[in-house]
Amino acid sequence: MEISVDGEPLAGIAGQTVAGMLLAAGRTSWRTTRSGAPRGVFCGIGACFDCLVTVNGVPDVRACRRRAADGDEIRTQSRQEEA
Predict the structure, then answer these.
(1) For range 30-59, the mean pLDDT
(2) Is the pTM of this model over 0.85?
(3) Coil, strand, or helix at residue 21?
(4) Where are the extended beta strands (E) located within the chain?
(5) 5: Cα within 13 Å, side-chain hemisphere
């Protein structure tokens, strides 16, 4: 199975979550807060909203809860304020 993350291909195994694929690829963060602080998986059960990504154009999807599907287009998110 293959997804793209910010335009880059990423291979995975059927049944993996988006967060699982990102972590397996060595990525520990994929979102930034307004202050610019990096975020990734924190709770791993969908309670904290730290792992948000955009999946196929839908923003604010919890990567730890969303099972990846072949061909998914994932975009990282930023809440950083413009200076």
Answers:
(1) 93
(2) yes
(3) helix
(4) 2-5, 8-11, 31-32, 38-39, 52-55, 58-62, 73-75, 77-78
(5) 21
